[in-house]
Amino acid sequence: MPDSEFPATEWWQTGVIYQIYPRSFQDTNGDGIGDLPGITSRLDYLVSLGIDAIWISPFYPSPMADFGYDVSDYTNVDPLFGTLADFDALLAAAHNRGLRVILDFVPNHTSDQHPWFLQSKSSRDQRANPKRNWYLWHDAAQPGDDWQPAKNRYPNNWMSQFGGHAWEWDQPTEQFYLHSFLKEQPDLNWRNPQVRAAIYMAMRFWLDRGVDGFRMDVLWLLIKDEFFRNNPPNPQDLASTLPVFTADQPETHKIVAEMRSVLDSYGDRVLIGEIYLPLPELVRYYGQSDDSTPNPQSPTPKTPQLRGANLPFNFHLIQSQWYAEAIAHIIRTYESLLPAGAWPNYVLGNHDQSRLATRIGPQQARAAAMLLLTLRGTPTLYYGDELGMQDIPIAPDQVRDPAEKNEPGKGKGRDPERSPMLWLDTPNAGFTSAEVTPWLPLQHDWQTENATAQSTRPRSILTLYRKLLQLRRQHDTLHSGGIADVAAEGNILRFRRVALPNGHSTDFQLLFNLGNDIATTQCAPGTVVLTTILDGEGSHVDGAITIEAGEGLLIALDSNEGILE
């Protein structure tokens, strides 16, 4: 499998990304909702944590039907979060601290209040209305034997990601428009070159201000079938369909390459794609190689330059069952499929998924922290996971997420994983002022599991994250080295991180007990650098080793010339 043939040279390869959901990070103006000045006020915490870049979920002007993922202006800041001046101050403060800033960008759809859509729906005459074709409009299907009004005759069987049909009837122009999500989020027509040019201009607006890259929302959904064909039935669930004509269309890769070209024209930037696809399809989003194909006879082979996303997000650890063999299979398969020159990445949590500590339990969440931060490639953390934050219960009158409101009781709500960050042992955990009600409830144990309290405890999960991030920065092997011998032995997951050639780094053995009982395995001679339960560091191991349930071990092997500092 590929490992250190092409060593990391870019900041986004050696660094760690930290996702901030701005509504829930820090409120400074007393409205119970986080804002941009709040992020600025917490940058020193992020530096002390040891991350390298922040990815900020949308803060653009929006009616907030989907909390900012319904954008009404791509080149401004919603007053809820502050001003453009606040953003510029945040960017400058982050850069002054050596932190990069990545913005969440929403290219698939806009708000139905965006001026583009308001003009698009004003007339169906494309000669009089140049923006009619900026969105996906379609006539009603022809009536059948049982005549129905046009508004009930959907053009095809395409369904919204949030439930229900993906078509909304517009009575004034007597056509449907497509919305892959809420009806307030009409899909842009990415086959229209004017749409592409407008989006790339909006990207340049932020790149000109100095942002370091973009995370592109639902990148694999941008292009739809030009013939609007029905999706076929899902043989595993006949009540649903397979997104054959609404996702991962071949033309999408050209769009990704164009986006990449925009960023490359600014130099040291990164393009990240949100892509939920099987691994063979996912790795295609790295794009095609240019003409710099490596010469295997060369003593210093040139890294192939791929023209797609720098980091197509790999969510397979989120989606996997927490079993050693399942995880080992993901790692081995992913590494084997990566094209030459592609840099891997892993994600274990985000604003759309149940919290890590809720999915696998608090003890296994510690093992997951070590796994994420010792795998080859770029890791992305979700705010609060470093505190072991868990999903919060949401009462019916506290529901905010439109996905849950659309289909109540079906478990699609994402409010539980978006609760406010826990900072202090003060009212509202320091997220907002004491007399304000936060937009979502706090985790119940905020008085003891906040960042300040955990900073004083030598065995807290926050301490573990800080140690892991420090070690990752300290040892080239952990951020740039190879990976080998990925295997599962019962509940034990194991792999080695291999030092870069011609370097003076340390080889490491990683061992994880993902089961519920104590387990024993074999280990080559080495020194324990870190355990997830934060004891036993410095002890020498050789041969049989016992690992507690949910424990992970980072061991510096003796069989190399590296010096363990």
Structural commentary:
An eight-stranded parallel sheet has the order 11-10-7-3-2-1-13-12. A six-stranded antiparallel sheet has the order 14-15-16-19-17-18. By secondary structure, it is of the alpha/beta class. α6 runs parallel beside α7 (about 250-265) and α12 (about 360-375) runs parallel beside α15 (about 460-475). Helices cover about 25% and strands about 15% of the residues. The two termini are about 30 Å apart.
**What is the residue-mean pLDDT, rounded to a whole number?**
93
- Number of individual domains: 3
**Secondary-structure-derived class:** alpha/beta
Content of β-strand: 15-25%
Please give the alpha-carbon distance between the first and last residues: 29 Å
Which bin fits the share of residues in helices? 10-25%
Number of helices: 16
Write the layout of secondary structure elements.
Blueprint: H1 11-14, E1 17-20, H2 36-41, H3 43-49, E2 53-56, H4 84-96, E3 100-105, H5 115-120, E4 137-138, E5 167-170, E6 175-178, H6 193-209, E7 213-216, E8 233-234, E9 237-241, H7 252-264, E10 270-273, H8 279-282, E11 311-312, H9 316-319, H10 324-337, E12 345-347, H11 356-360, H12 362-374, E13 378-382, H13 402-406, H14 451-455, H15 461-474, H16 476-480, E14 482-489, E15 492-498, E16 508-513, E17 519-531, E18 540-547, E19 552-557
Parallel strand pairs: 1-2, 1-13, 2-3, 3-7, 7-10, 10-11, 12-13
Antiparallel strand pairs: 4-6, 5-6, 8-9, 14-15, 15-16, 16-19, 17-18, 17-19
